[in-house]
Write the structure tokens for this entry.
Amino acid sequence: MIKSMTGFASARGELAPWSWGWELRAVNGKGLDMRLRVPDWLEGLEAALRTELAKSVARGNITLSLRVVRGDDAGAMVLNRGTMGAVLDALEVVETEAMERGLTLAPSKASDLLPLRGMLEIGMAEDDTVPLLAQIKSEFAPLVQAFVQMRSVEGAALAQVLGEQLDRVAALTHEAATLAEARKSVVAETLKTNLARVLDNADGADPDRVAQELALLAVKADVTEEIDRLGAHVTAARDLLAKGGTVGRKLDFLMQEFNREANTLCSKAQSSDLTTVGLELKAVIDQMREQVQNVE
């Protein structure tokens, strides 16, 4: 089964006096990009969640957000003096550089500095976070499972749409083959007429050479290979959909190949009916390409 790259899952949990909320969402992406926003005071949490999430997703821009709050006053915020010292040192460098350049900066206020990351921390013993960390980790797997399930449901819908579009491509390819076969006699007769006209109006022309050139034109107008390759691409795409898994990139490559053959078919058509079929093929292939962008 294929999976969509888009998905969403949310959950809530609590372990007195703590409560938290999860949000896990994904949109299309060429590769795998995971952005996690989790409390940095829960040591090792981000690395653990990232590792667990990577087991279930292969492509997409993934955003995970976890907000943890405490319902009592036991976890009062305290100033991280180490971070404060580093911030003040950096501020001193900025102010010195500004004065050397003749610039005047507005005085910094404590309210400007306190919101900076790491300036304030929850005042608690390290042991207090151990059960909280364990509980949060244990609840992450069901969240990921719900997220993957949603991607799978959307993937099943994608597979159905792509299957119907492939059926349409196959039908149009068959129609193109029928039209190409029907025009062979017309093309042959046209070449004979052209050959006779050239020989009648070209004194001293080598008949064999003229015949070779016209035969070359006939070969260039032949669309058999394009039709055969379109049929092979349909089979390959159906096999990928049946196989499932992470096949988005392979399907995307196939869409390029589909489009190349349809373009060549149109350029070689020399027939309004065959051109019409080729243009319709291009339209369906473009619709498929848009859908494939959602496949993991």
The CA atoms of residues 49 and 137 lie 7 Å apart.
